[in-house]
Amino acid sequence: MSDIEHRLGEDRMLRDAALGLFKADLALIRADIAERGIGTRIKDRIGEGTADMIEDAVDYAEENRGKIAAAVAAVVLWFARGPIIDALGRLFDDGEEEDAELVEPDSRSA
Fold first, then answer.
1. Could you please report the per-residue DSSP string of 12-24?
2. Residues of 55-82 as b/e, b for ≥16 C-beta within 10 angstroms?
3. What is the dihedral of CA 33, 39, 41, 47, to 10 degrees?
4. Is the pLDDT of residue 94 over 90?
5. What is the CA radius of gyration of the chain?
6. pLDDT tens digits, 37-59
7. What phi and psi values does residue 106 have, to the nearest 5 degrees?
8. Which stretch of 25-29, 50-54, 89-93 has the lowest confidence by average pLDDT?
9. How far apart are CA 88 and CA 29, in angstroms?
């Protein structure tokens, strides 16, 4: 047997071994999917990812309480800016409105 025929035989054995491994993996995957459907797998994967994300967020919040409190306060103030500005305007404009009422121009002289 020549060297080429020997290498060809080895290559065929490697090919057959790889094919057998692939078929075994495919059979395991098919059995696993039959046991637990794709929808269940997706749900489990999303659930695990969500749980990990929530855990990371809680850890971050515990480590940075001051920053989180400042961010929440900034958001609350941003959304309440209209009423706050109106209240401050009424507080500081009370005297000016009374002066404006006293100096009303006479509409008949126009």
1. HHHHHHHHHHHHH
2. eeeeeeeeeeeeeeeeeeeeeeeeeeee
3. -170
4. no
5. 38
6. 878 888 888 888 899 999 999 99
7. -80, 120
8. 89-93
9. 68
